[in-house]
């Protein structure tokens, strides 16, 4: 059966959760690398499906969802919503570290409590949207990532969004090759940022 790209449905949430963890460590399986890997979908998948399901698309192979793209059209509004109505739900399960993050679990917990740090003010006008895309290994290198991206781009154009960005670990050289083929370019940032993370942008006009 061929794999279909379709809009997200609430029943897909468990698959999103699973995919996010199994691709969550620089594109590879995070299982066993975190004490509680649920922090990954709590940060990088589930809130998008809840806040704006119209900008979530999935690859469905007829048995299950094997990949997704999630997006926030207005990143500043997304992080404000995370703080106001998402963080209270998870703050107790993933408490903020007492000091500087001591391990990977604490890095992500810290990010949950200060998600607005992911906002890049100098690109907010030109690239207000941001996205995350992940496919299970069995779905990779078959053109599904490209199809998910172009489905999302069409939805963003319909809303008049001028550009979309994403943050990528420079270690993820496979993803870098993919984004380059799709047409993303690295955005030169003036702000003092962690240089292990690249910010890539794609104009929709
Ligand atoms: C990165 C990812 C989204 C790419 O999706 P995909 O479905 O595998 O990519 P596609 O098959 O649609 O490929 C699109 C283009 O990118 C190229 N490409 C994809 N992966 C590549 C790789 N590892 N190396 C070189 N080129 C690659 C393809 O050759 C294709 O080029 P072309 O169509 O111009 O000939 C997917 O592999 C993935 O989910 N990886 C694990 C999770 C991850 O790293 N997510 C990104 C986190 S920032």
What characteristics describe this protein?
single chain, 205 residues, alpha+beta, Aminopeptidase, 7-stranded mixed beta sheet, 7 helices, 19% strand, globular, binds coenzyme A
Write structural notes for this entry:
With 205 residues, this protein is α+β, with helices and mostly antiparallel strands. It has one domain (4-123, 132-158): Aminopeptidase (3-Layer(aba) Sandwich). The chain has helices at 13-22, 39-44, 46-51, 75-90, 104-113, 144-158, 173-182; strands at 4-7, 57-60, 65-72, 129-135, 163-169, 185-186, 197-203. It has a seven-stranded mixed beta sheet with strand order 1-2-3-4-5-7-6, with helices on both faces. Helix 6 links the parallel strand 4 and strand 5. The N and C termini lie far apart (35 Å). Bound molecules: coenzyme A. Coenzyme A binds next to strand 4, helix 6 and helix 7.
């Amino acid at each position: 059966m061929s794999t279909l790209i379709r809009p997200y449905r609430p029943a897909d949430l468990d698959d999103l959760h699973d995919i996010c963890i199994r691709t969550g460590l620089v594109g590879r399986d995070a299982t066993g690398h975190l004490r509680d890997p649920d922090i990954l979908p709590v940060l990088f998948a589930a809130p998008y499906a809840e806040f704006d399901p119209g900008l979530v698309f999935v690859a469905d192979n007829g048995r299950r969802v094997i990949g997704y793209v999630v997006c926030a059209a207005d990143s500043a509004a997304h992080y404000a919503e995370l703080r106001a109505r998402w963080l209270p739900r998870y703050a107790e399960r993933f408490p903020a570290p007492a000091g500087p993050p001591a391990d990977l679990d604490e890095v992500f917990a810290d990010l949950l409590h200060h998600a607005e740090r992911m906002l890049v003010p100098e690109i907010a006008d030109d690239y207000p949207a941001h996205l995350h895309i992940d496919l299970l290994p069995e779905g990779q290198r078959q053109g599904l990532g490209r199809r998910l991206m172009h489905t999302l781009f069409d939805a963003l154009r319909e809303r008049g969004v001028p550009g979309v960005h994403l943050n990528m670990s420079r270690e993820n050289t496979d993803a870098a090759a993919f984004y380059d083929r799709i047409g993303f370019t690295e955005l030169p940032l003036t702000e003092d940022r962690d240089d292990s993370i690249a910010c890539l942008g794609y104009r929709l006009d």
